Amino acid sequence: MTLIDHAGVDAFTGATRRGFNASGKVMLPVRKNFVETGVDLMYNRQTFTYNDAANGFVGERRLRVTQFMVPLTYSLVLFKDHYPEGLFQIKLGYVAQFNLFSITEGSGYLPEYSTRAFSNGASLGFSTTPFRLKHGAKLGFFVDLYRGTRAYEDFYNRTEFEIPGTSFIKYGIIYQY
């Protein structure tokens, strides 16, 4: 809040609730590693609370964000001796996002805002499929981190500020057949 004139410490807060993600991906072999791509669908809800009498903004804005994403990552495969596709994969790459917003405003006076339909950024991930099932499928888990360009802008999330961009940490179960 030090970048906003006269804003108190609690002038603006934003909370993201847990969301969900579903994806379908394909791994294409490139020498001993993989290129991975596919389609992801992510949904989450956020609440922005404004309590800034000095700048005249008081109230609450609720966002529901649906994102369609296309990742393109390069996976370094580790421990290939016992597992043909490796036991662990470390992924580094790019994610393009198409953002759909549903915004509800509560009572009060809120700042103007704008949204962007497209955002993109860098992705880093880890995955493993250590469990082999009887019919040849594999079971495991993943963790992906992402940091990208901004998709929402208002008085507290301005273009000239370094911080406000899209980001997520997602984790889940992999079922690979």
Question: Could you please describe the fold and organization of this structure?
Answer:
The protein is mainly beta and about 180 residues long. It is about 0% helix and about 70% strand. It has no helices and ten strands. The strands form two sheets. Strands 1, 2, 3, 4, 5, 7, 8 and 10 form an eight-stranded antiparallel β-sheet that branches. Strand 7 and strand 8 form a beta hairpin.
Give a brief outline of the structure:
Helix content is 0%, strand content 69%.
Summary tags:
177 residues, mainly beta, 8-stranded antiparallel beta sheet, two-stranded antiparallel ribbon, 10 strands, 0% helix
Q: Which stretches of 5+ consecutive residues score pLDDT under 50?
A: none
Shape: elongated
Quote the average pLDDT: 85
Q: What integer value in Å does the Rg equal?
A: 20 Å
The structural class is: mainly beta
* Number of helical elements: 0
Number of strands: 10
Question: What is the rounded distance between the termini?
Answer: 49 Å
Strand content: over 45%
Major pleated sheet: 8 strands, antiparallel
- What's the helix-strand series? EEEEEEEEEE
Q: Helicity range of the residues?
A: under 10%
Please describe the topology of this protein.
Layout: E1 12-16, E2 20-30, E3 33-52, E4 57-78, E5 88-109, E6 113-115, E7 118-132, E8 138-148, E9 152-154, E10 167-176
Antiparallel strand pairs: 1-3, 2-3, 3-4, 4-5, 5-7, 6-9, 7-8, 8-10
